[in-house]
Design goal:
The protein is mainly α. It contains three helices and no strands. α1 (2-28) packs antiparallel against α2 (32-62) and α2 (32-62) runs antiparallel to α3.
């Protein structure tokens, strides 16, 4: 059981790491599109990994397999919906005239 607990904790911590890197990318990148890229990729991967770790922990220690399957279904939904939403928001911004950052535009 300790191995399962260790694996689930590692997955949850890796998910938190990707959340943190996505947040750092959001704060550091220069324009809307690169910020959307950082948060979209980072958050999608972070939610997927953290929820899989949570479902493993929940199944091993609480014995609720059905609840763990529901958590995995939520993770798959977020894995599919988050990139789609990020693309839709970026496309709407492009159509509204939000210009991408260029090196010449920063001077």
């Amino acid at each position: 059981m300790e191995i399962v607990k260790g694996i689930s904790m590692i997955l949850i911590l890796v998910g938190c790491f990707f959340f943190a890197t996505g947040t750092i990318g959001f704060l550091r990148f220069p324009d809307f599109y690169s910020r959307m890229h950082a948060t979209g990729k980072g958050d999608t991967l972070a939610v997927l990994i953290a929820l899989v770790g949570l479902s493993i922990y929940h199944a091993a220690y609480h014995g609720a397999i059905l609840d763990s399957i529901k958590i995995v279904v939520v993770a798959v939904f977020v894995f599919l919906a988050n990139p789609t939403a990020t693309h839709a928001i970026s496309r709407a911004a492009f159509r509204c005239g939000v210009k991408p950052w260029t090196r010449e535009g920063s001077k």
